[in-house]
Amino acid sequence: MPPDVGRVWVTRTAPFNQLTAKRLAAKGYETLLMPALRVVPVATHVPVAVPDALIFTSLNGIRLHRFLPALANRQVFAVGDHSARFARAIGYRRVMSASGNVSDLAKLIVAQSVPGSTVLHIGAVQPAGDLEVLLAAGGVRLRRHPVYDVVESNLAGMRSVVASPAGLAAALIHSPRAGAHVAAWLDRRRPAWRGAVVCISEAAASSFRNGRGLDIKVAKRPDEASMLSCLGMSGTDRS
Fold this sequence. Notes:
This protein is an alpha/beta fold. It has 2 domains: 110 residues, Rossmann fold (3-Layer(aba) Sandwich), CATH 3.40.50.10090; 105 residues, Rossmann fold (3-Layer(aba) Sandwich), CATH 3.40.50. The protein is built from 9 helices and 11 strands. The strands form 2 sheets. It has a 6-stranded mixed beta sheet, sandwiched between helices. Strands 2-1-9-10-11 form a 5-stranded parallel beta sheet. The longest helix has 12 residues. It is elongated. The C terminus is likely disordered.
């Protein structure tokens, strides 16, 4: 059984926050689902020019794009193992995982691509990271194909939970943008909350490092399994 940590706020976007809640429940944690961000599909057209490879940096990009059987044998690069498994599950046959972050993904793509290749990034209207610049430095051209937008959620429903000292012990932060939104919202709350913030990366944790007195935990690897392992750690980084 886990330590007595109280409820864990899952800020991850739907529908994948349900997977996080199931993992937490299996470990004995009580969860509270309140996404920090909301995913909004956008109208899109099927790309006319066939790229040399496809790129996915999010599960939502895979979920919301239109799979074309004619592209099933195209090389696919995924930022993480979970995204890679999801891409294979919907029908892509040649999938490679960077098992890391955007920088790791760019290195993998450059290493596996012929200079002058064109890759198609299927994802958000405003993608995180600087993938285009990183790829250009390696001689790979990137085209973007947005299939969804991300907007900040109204977190008013969390007010009473955060105000109660026993109501919330930890929050899981899955992205830098979610971290920025939650940190800004917490700054406006009174009384101040002093729980644990478990972040998927240092970039996701950066918005909380301004003397709030929070217990900041950063996953050793940018994946959820590493995040959940942090919940059992004692506080190590109050800043």
